[in-house]
Design brief:
The chain is α+β, with helices and mostly antiparallel strands and about 575 residues long. The protein has three domains: about 130 residues, 2-Layer Sandwich (Phosphorylase Kinase, domain 1), CATH 3.30.200.20; about 160 residues, Transferase(Phosphotransferase), domain 1; about 150 residues, Galactose-binding domain-like (Jelly Rolls, Sandwich), CATH 2.60.120. The chain is built from ten helices and 21 strands. The strands form five sheets. Strands 12, 13, 15, 16, 17, 18, 19 and 21 form an eight-stranded antiparallel β-sheet that branches. Strands 1-2-3-4-6-5 form a six-stranded antiparallel β-sheet, covered by helices on one side. α4 runs antiparallel to α6. The two termini are about 55 Å apart.
Length: about 575
C-alpha cells in the first residue's frame, strides 16, 4: 500500500504538514477550559492550528436557523476558523441532531474536503463517527456527520485524572484496531488528538473527523501511518500520566519538563502499568529507543494493535462494594410490638394480661355450646354449597348452553396478553463494537417516531460485510426478572430487514453472544414493517434479542440501512 495518505487527497498546501509534536507545541495551555461538544470541533484559536501559507479566509456568513438542502437547520456555531465553520444542527427529516462543516465552494480546500468526506463515508466502520452527507450547492460545500450527545470527549476524561490500567488498555486497543482498519482502506486521520476521541456510555471509543479534519486544515503527511501511530502513542501516554508527552502544554494537559526529553510513563507517575508504558514508548517517536531498549518501535497502527494483542490480559479492577447497613430488626421482632417508635421507645409500658381461660363448670358448658353451634353452621354451609353446584351443572345441560370440560380435551380460553415492563435495553454487540448505543432507549420509550438506526453500509446488506458485524446486530431487552413471555410485537424502522427474535435461557444472567439465546420466538426471515408473533406456549426468560442479520436498501438504492423503532414484549 502506498504510504502517502488519501486523507487530505493531496491538498496543495503542504506548509500545514506538521508532526503531532509540532502541532502540540502550538496548542494553548487553556485547552481544558474551551467549550466542548459531542462531535463538532471545539472552538480553536488560530494559534492552535498549523500555519499555512494561505491568508486566513472568512468563514461563510451564516446564522442560526439557516437551513441546508431543506432539512439541515443550523443551531449553534462551535468553530469558525480559516474559512470554514462547524455547527450543531438538526436534521428535520429524521428529527435528530447532526454536525455540519461548512466552507465556500471556492475555498482552496473545498475539493479536498469533499473527497475526504466521501472516502470516509464509504468506510462505513461504526468505530468512527459516520459521515452522513457531503454536498456542494449554492456556492457552499458542507459535510454532515453524526452527533453523539451522550458521548464524552477524551479531553474531559483526561481532565479528571489518569486512567486505570484496564481503561487505558481499552482505549489504545480500540483506537489502534480502528485506525489499522482505516489504513487498510487507504484512509488516515492525521489529527488524532484527545478532542477527536469519544467514549460512549457503553464504554466503546469512537473516532471523529477521519480524513475530514485534516482536509479542513490542509494537513498532509508523507508518512501517514507513522503519524497516526505516534498520535495513538501520545493518547496512551496522556491516559497513563495525565501529561502531554512533549515539552509544551496542550489540550488542557501539562507538558513534560523542558530539557529532559521523552521519559517513559512509569517514570513520570508511580504505579503505571509497565507493559502499557512500553507500548506508549514503542509508538512515540524516540529515535528507535523504547522503554525496555529491547522491543522494536511500532510504525503502523497494525503493528501497534498486534503488540497490544500480544500483551498479557489486563483485567478490570475488582468492583468495590459498600457494606450494607447493619441489619435492624423490626419493632415486632424486637419484642416491642405495640410500643411507640422513636426516642421514647425505651420507656416501659404497662403490660396487658389476658384473662384466664374459663375453668369453671359453667365455662366448660359454654365452650361446648359454642362448639356445637360452629359445627352446625359448617354443615349448613356445606349443604348450601353442594346444592348450588348441582343447580349449576343442571343448568349447563340445557340446550344452547356451552360448558368447557377439561376432561373432554377442551382448553380454557387463555387471558389476553399484556405488555410486560421492560427494565432496560442494550445494543447486541457480540464482539464489543457498538453502532448507536445512545439511540437504544428510543426502542423502548413508547414512541414509534423515535428509532435505533444503523449507519448506511455500502456493497453488502450484512452490515457492509464488516468483521465487527458478522453476527449481525440488534437490541437485547431486559425484563428485570424471569417472566412468562407469550408474544412479541416489534415495529421496525424499515421493512425488508432479515430478522428473528430469540430468548435467553431461564438461567441466563448476562447473555452477550448468539449461543446465549437458544430459544426461537420467531424464525429468521425477511420482515415487513412489523415483527409480531403470539406463542402457542409461554417461554420462561428474562432477556429477549431482536436480531437483525441483513439490511434493506435505503432511499438512494445504493446503500443499506435498517433499525428498530419500538419493542413490546407480551406476557
Amino acid at each position: 500500500m502506498a504510504e502517502r495518505s488519501t486523507a487530505a487527497v493531496d491538498v496543495a498546501d503542504n506548509s500545514g504538514d506538521k508532526p503531532l509534536a509540532a502541532e502540540a507545541d502550538e496548542a494553548t495551555s487553556d485547552g481544558a477550559a474551551e467549550a466542548q461538544d459531542a462531535t463538532g470541533e471545539r472552538p480553536q484559536d488560530a494559534e492552535n492550528e498549523p500555519k499555512g501559507s494561505e491568508t486566513a479566509l472568512p468563514a461563510p456568513d451564516l446564522h442560526s436557523g439557516h437551513k441546508l438542502a431543506g432539512r439541515y437547520r443550523l443551531e449553534e456555531c462551535v468553530t469558525r476558523l480559516d474559512g470554514f465553520s462547524s455547527w450543531r444542527a438538526v436534521d428535520e427529516k429524521l428529527r435528530r441532531a447532526v454536525g455540519v462543516h461548512l466552507l465556500p465552494a471556492d475555498h482552496p480546500r473545498a475539493r479536498s474536503v469533499l473527497a475526504a468526506a466521501r472516502s470516509s463515508a464509504l468506510l462505513g466502520d461504526p468505530r468512527f463517527v459516520q459521515v452522513l452527507d457531503a454536498v456542494e450547492e449554492n456556492d457552499l460545500v458542507y459535510v454532515v456527520h453524526e452527533w453523539l450527545p451522550d458521548a464524552t470527549e477524551l479531553t474531559a476524561l483526561l481532565g479528571a485524572g489518569p486512567m486505570e490500567a484496564h481503561d487505558a488498555y481499552q482505549l489504545v486497543s480500540q483506537i489502534s484496531q480502528a485506525m489499522a482498519a482505516a489504513h487498510r482502506e487507504g484512509l488516515a486521520h492525521l489529527r488524532l488528538t484527545p478532542g477527536a476521541v469519544l467514549r460512549s456510555s457503553s464504554g466503546q471509543y469512537r473516532i471523529r473527523g477521519l480524513a475530514v479534519n485534516a482536509a479542513l486544515r490542509g494537513i498532509t503527511s508523507d508518512g501517514p501511518q507513522r503519524a497516526d501511530t505516534e498520535a495513538i502513542g501520545a493518547l496512551l501516554y496522556a491516559a497513563l500520566t495525565q501529561r502531554w508527552p512533549y515539552e509544551s502544554d496542550a489540550y488542557g494537559l501539562t507538558g513534560l519538563p523542558k530539557g529532559v526529553g521523552l521519559i517513559p510513563p512509569d517514570q513520570v507517575r508511580a504505579g503505571v502499568h509497565r507493559g502499557l508504558s512500553e507500548i506508549a514508548m514503542r509508538a512515540l517517536a524516540n529515535d528507535g529507543a523504547t522503554a525496555s531498549r529491547q522491543e522494536q518501535p511500532c510504525t503502523t497502527p497494525d503493528e501497534l494493535a498486534k503488540a497490544i494483542a500480544a500483551m498479557p490480559r489486563i483485567r478490570p479492577p475488582e468492583p468495590t462494594f459498600t457494606a450494607p447497613p447493619e441489619y435492624q430488626r423490626t419493632t415486632y421482632q424486637q419484642g416491642t410490638y405495640g410500643r411507640p417508635a422513636g426516642p421514647a421507645a425505651g420507656v416501659t409500658q404497662p403490660v396487658v394480661v389476658p384473662p384466664a381461660p374459663l375453668q369453671s363448670r359453667t365455662g366448660k358448658a359454654l365452650k361446648w355450646a359454642v362448639s356445637g353451634l360452629l359445627i352446625a353452621a359448617l354443615g349448613l354451609g356445606s349443604w348450601q354449597l353442594a346444592e348450588t353446584l348441582l343447580d349449576r351443572d343442571k343448568g349447563s345441560s340445557d340446550p344452547g348452553t356451552t360448558r368447557t370440560d377439561p376432561q373432554n380435551g377442551d382448553k380454557p380460553k387463555p387471558p389476553p396478553a399484556v405488555p410486560l415492563k421492560i427494565a432496560g435495553a442494550v445494543e447486541f454487540t457480540p464482539i464489543g463494537s457498538s453502532i448507536s448505543q445512545e439511540e437504544v432507549p428510543n426502542t423502548v420509550d413508547g414512541k414509534p417516531g423515535t428509532s435505533w438506526i444503523t449507519p448506511r453500509y455500502e456493497g453488502f446488506p450484512n452490515f457492509g460485510n464488516l468483521a465487527p458485524r458478522k453476527d449481525g446486530s440488534g437490541i437485547v431487552v431486559d425484563l428485570g426478572s424471569v417472566q412468562d413471555v407469550s408474544g412479541i410485537d416489534v415495529t421496525l424502522y424499515r421493512s425488508g430487514q432479515k430478522a428473528e427474535v430469540l430468548a435467553a435461557a431461564e438461567s441466563a444472567s448476562a447473555p452477550s453472544s448468539l449461543s446465549d439465546f437458544p430459544q426461537h420466538l420467531t424464525q429468521l426471515g425477511t420482515a415487513g414493517s412489523n415483527l409480531k408473533e403470539s406463542l402457542p406456549k409461554p417461554v420462561r426468560t428474562r432477556y429477549i434479542l431482536i436480531h437483525i442479520t441483513e439490511l434493506p436498501l435505503d432511499d438512494t438504492g445504493s446503500g443499506y440501512r435498517g433499525g428498530i423503532s419500538e419493542i413490546s414484549v407480551l406476557g
